[in-house]
Amino acid sequence: MHTTMDIKDIIKPENKVYSKTPVLLDNVMHYCPGCSHGTAHKLVAEVIEEMGIQENTIGVSPVGCSVFAYNYVDIDWQQAAHGRAPALATATKRLYPDKYVFTYQGDGDLASIGTAEIMHACNRGENIVVIFINNAIYGMTGGQMAPTTLMGMKTATSPYGRREDLHGKPLRITDLISQLEGTCYVTRQSVQNAAGARKTKRAIRKGFENSAKKKGTSFIEIVSSCNSGWKMSPVKANEWMVENMFPSYPLGDLKDI
Amino acid sequence: MAEYILMKGNEAIAISAIRNGCDGYFGYPITPQSEVMETLMLEEPWDSTGMVVLQAESETSSINMLYGGASCGKKVMTSSSSPGISLMAEGLSYLAGAELPCLVVNVVRGGPGLGTIQPGQGDYFQACKGCGHGDYKMIVLAPNSAQEMYDFVDLGFELAFKYRNPALILTDGVIGQMMEKVELREMKPRWTDQEVIEMSPWATTGKTPDRKQNVITSLALDAAVHEALNHRLIEKYKKMEEEDVRFENYKCEDAEHLIVAYGSMARVCENTIDLARKEGIKLGLLRPITLFPYPTKEIQRMVPQLKTIMSVELSAGQMVEDVRLAVNGKIPVNFYGRLGGIVPSPEEVLEAFKKEINK
Question: B31 in a domain, yes or no?
């Protein structure tokens, strides 16, 4: 006998394979379609939910595209001045040693204007997590050259391509960070496909667990795409990232102790 | 029995912080205020009250550590001297914009630039007119003794939390380095975590299921929302002017002439008043204790009985602008100032005063 299955027979709790974490708010994200931030936010929110630490986590958002991170992840947030997030996180963690404190920063914020703050927070071994989105460009201000912009890459302030004699070479700040004794875990990940997202999520979770163990600073770079800034389609941007960004910023753990 | 200790003004700041329930001090060394952090590190308050003390990598970082600590509803402070406060200008604007309470001490030296490590009052504009960007004000307290250095830490925190606004103690190398008898007031314990939440329900203490997330930010891209934020700040500053102006009068009842001076310069000018009185000159002293909010109304109240006013400062003439605004052209406003770290004697001030009124 032939029977037709009703949709109501399918939508049952036992059949559920995915749901949005409640730590992610319902606000419509302002990020461009194809941007890596949305995925990175989701992974942070999922880790917070899975570890059951929503009540004990304080985030510090930067200046840049992710300035509004507080609109999407349902925890208490501090919005920092450009580059200063690690200073805010340092004080917050020292005043609330039992809370989880993390910064979420872009490459302009962390690797340019905020180099002093990130270096010294990592060197002191603050028990915080740093999530570093490296898309090699200033997204929010309209696609200017970042310290991590690749050689030859065209941006609004390097319209003929990045030149060594004019701009110097890209800053591999994560390599520098890994040399600092205060860091316990330094890794470089990406979120352009499911495998990458899974690995990144594991890295974020490890960072938060390191905080609880007071092992020092955990630093997670996420090599990301900015298809609007790069002036490419989302698919093309991801391909370009794999071909061009990964050779300069190879994925994997730089340090794990 | 009250306990008295002989100490420097800078040491009084540090001891008062520990004894008044301060949760965190974040600073960077600079002359002439390094004793503040040195005293804290010697006292090791993390073992007694649990207070956090941290030497930051720069003044830029220390002011942003205050932003983080203040966001948590904690009583946090820093101290510095003029060039260091310039570096903090960005952070102070953010703190005011995000409506965060904190205490900043500026032990002023001579400027501009690297200037001198000798005392000065050339940071009046920086303190009172907003050293950072945007329309904001700080509560500015001007102590004239080691005792007031001690007492204004507590007062500064009280006002900062009353208004959710940065408070600044504007002092100088004279008051910071001078040793005087200081009465230690009764200890105030640090707030418990529960008290922090009750005192500052807006703070980032961790989002519990019974409330929405707390977000500390100065960002408001919507024009109407941002204008409303600015209006709220303006209302707050008006309230400060209505409720928290502080000043002191010295021999003003029958005064025909008035000197206006604050901080270390007011200490010198007290003696000038006594010298003038011996010569039969009816001279009085108004010492503003809050430089913002400024005792504008008190000056206006006194104008009808006065022939002249003179502002005496260790600057090229900064506070005198607020005196002139208060007087609004009704009587002559004169100015006398020394620079480069030179502190004039009471006699020198009297001579300058006589020269002006005999012109």
Answer: yes
